C-alpha cells in the first residue's frame, strides 16, 4: 500500500505551541511527586493516618491553586512580552521598511539562500505589512504572534491535572487503609503510568519514560521520608 507523504496530510505534527499539554503534564507529575514526597515525609515522622490524609489534602488544594495561578501568570506575562516585542517590530517596519527587508534577506542568506533570491522574497514579503510583521517576528523572536498559548487553558490544565496527580497517593487512605507503604506503592504506579502516557506524545519508549518518572519520584520520597524520620526521632514522635 502506498503511504501518503506526511506533508500532504493535514495536521501531521503534534501541537507543540504549549497551550495545554505542557502544563497538564507538569501539573500531573508535580502533583504526584509533591504529595508522594509529602506523605512520605509526614508518614516517616510517625504521624497518624488521619494526619497524613489531612496533610495530603492540604497539599493537594494548596498545590493545585498555586500551580494554576503560577501557570496563568507565567503564560500571560510571556504573551505580554511577545506582544510588546511585536509592537516594537511593527513600529520598525513602519519607520524603516527597507532596512527591515535587508535584515530579513541577510538572515536568509546566512541560512544558505542565494542573495538575489533572498532579496526578492524579502521585498515580496514587505508588500504585505501583516505578513511582513509575522515573518519578521518569527525570524527574530522565534515565535508565531498569531499562535500564542492561552493563559486560561494553561491554568485550568495545571490545576486539574495537579489535583488528579496529588490525589493518587491518598487513595488507599481514603479507602480505609492505614499502610504508608501501600500508599507509596500506589503513588509509584501512578508515576510510572504518567510517564508512560507522556511517552505517547514524545515518542520515547513507554517503559523508559515511566521508569524515569518512577525513579525521580522515589528519590524525592526517599529524601523526605528520611527527613521526616529524623525529625520524628529527635522530637520523640509527632
Automatic annotation (TrEMBL):
Subcellular location: Endomembrane system
Keywords, in A-Z order: Membrane, Transmembrane, Transmembrane helix
Lineage summary: Bacteria, Bacillati, Actinomycetota, Actinomycetes, Micromonosporales
Chief subcellular location: membrane
Its membrane topology: Multi-pass membrane protein
Listed transmembrane segments: 152-175, 181-202, 214-233
InterPro entries per UniProt: Ccc1_fam
Membrane as UniProt keyword: yes
Name by which UniProt lists this protein: VIT1/CCC1 transporter family protein
Amino acid at each position: 500500500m502506498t503511504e501518503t507523504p506526511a506533508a500532504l496530510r493535514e495536521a501531521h505534527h503534534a501541537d507543540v505551541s504549549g497551550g495545554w499539554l505542557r502544563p497538564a503534564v507538569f501539573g500531573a507529575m508535580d502533583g504526584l511527586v509533591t504529595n508522594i514526597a509529602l506523605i512520605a515525609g509526614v508518614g516517616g515522622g510517625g504521624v497518624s493516618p488521619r494526619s497524613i490524609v489531612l496533610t495530603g489534602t492540604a497539599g493537594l488544594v494548596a498545590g493545585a491553586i498555586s500551580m494554576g495561578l503560577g501557570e496563568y501568570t507565567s503564560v500571560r506575562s510571556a504573551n505580554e512580552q511577545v506582544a510588546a516585542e511585536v509592537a516594537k517590530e511593527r513600529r520598525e517596519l513602519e519607520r524603516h521598511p527597507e532596512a527591515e527587508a535587508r535584515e530579513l534577506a541577510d538572515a536568509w542568506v546566512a541560512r544558505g539562500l542565494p542573495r538575489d533570491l533572498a532579496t526578492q522574497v524579502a521585498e515580496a514579503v514587505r508588500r504585505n505589512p501583516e505578513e511582513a510583521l509575522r515573518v519578521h517576528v518569527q525570524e527574530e523572536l522565534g515565535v508565531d504572534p498569531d499562535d500564542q498559548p492561552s493563559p486560561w487553558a494553561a491554568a485550568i490544565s495545571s490545576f486539574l491535572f495537579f489535583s488528579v496527580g496529588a490525589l493518587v497517593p491518598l487513595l488507599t487512605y481514603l479507602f480505609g487503609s492505614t499502610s504508608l507503604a501501600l500508599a507509596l506503592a500506589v503513588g509509584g504506579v501512578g508515576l510510572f503510568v504518567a510517564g508512560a502516557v507522556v511517552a505517547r506524545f514524545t515518542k520515547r519508549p513507554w517503559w523508559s519514560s515511566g521508569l524515569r518518572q518512577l525513579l525521580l519520584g522515589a528519590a524525592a520520597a526517599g529524601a523526605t521520608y528520611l527527613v521526616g524520620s529524623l525529625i520524628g526521632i529527635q522530637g520523640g514522635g509527632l
